[in-house]
């Protein structure tokens, strides 16, 4: 069935699993850049996955994204700056870290990253980007990347688990269930407003 045809009442656990998690595994591709999408806790849950990929030499550059401001021990920092500082602490050299800190949404993560990537690589030289975000957020992120970035670039999914939205546990707590169901509904809404393409599940 087409995702665009679904209503909120159709969002069973099985449907949500297919929408959000199916086929989003890390197949351990190499890429030109590791792109870490922002969130208030991206430095805690997403960045370690990205640094692990970097340390495995699957890519030599790390792009941290996100312009929302969060509070830290060092004061108010953008999501991207918080991740940059944590990446440095984890041993990633500053020369290998790119930063995008204008974006406020997943869609803007993609659009605002284009200029950073153009200046670092020249876009025509990029063939594959490794996308790191929470497992439940990966489908929307992938569709946004495929929609708003050049069509010759491919994207490899490198999901990270957070505390409550793992594929095997999200439905076991009310907080995890509500967060994941809301994500599934967002995808339906974005498809119906033509922000991302429809797909079959």
UniProtKB/TrEMBL annotation:
Q: Which GO terms describe its cellular component?
A: plasma membrane
Signal peptide start-end: none
Q: Which InterPro entries match?
A: Cell_Envelope_Assoc, DUF218, Rossmann-like_a/b/a_fold
Q: Which domain of life is it from?
A: Bacteria
Question: Where in this chain does the record put each DUF218 domain?
Answer: 32-165
Q: What is this protein called?
A: DUF218 domain-containing protein
Q: Which organism is it from?
A: Clostridium oryzae
């Amino acid at each position: 069935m087409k995702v665009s045809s679904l209503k909120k009442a159709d969002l069973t656990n099985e449907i949500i699993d297919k929408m959000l998690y199916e086929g989003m595994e890390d197949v351990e591709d190499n890429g030109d850049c590791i792109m870490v999408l922002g969130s208030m806790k991206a430095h805690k849950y997403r960045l370690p996955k990205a640094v692990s990929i970097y340390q495995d030499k699957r890519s030599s550059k790390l792009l941290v994204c996100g312009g929302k401001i969060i509070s830290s021990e060092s004061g108010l920092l953008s999501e991207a700056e918080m991740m940059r500082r944590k990446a440095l602490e984890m041993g990633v050299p500053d020369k290998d870290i790119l930063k995008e800190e204008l974006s406020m949404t997943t869609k803007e993560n993609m659009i605002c990253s284009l200029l950073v990537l153009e200046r670092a690589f020249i876009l025509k030289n990029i063939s594959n980007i490794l996308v790191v975000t929470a497992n439940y957020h990966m489908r929307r992120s992938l569709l946004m990347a495929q929609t708003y970035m050049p069509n010759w670039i491919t994207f490899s999914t490198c999901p990270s688990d957070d505390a409550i939205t793992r594929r095997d546990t999200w439905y076991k707590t009310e907080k995890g269930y509500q967060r994941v169901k809301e994500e599934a509904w967002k995808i339906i809404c974005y498809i119906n407003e033509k922000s991302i393409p429809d797909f079959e599940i």
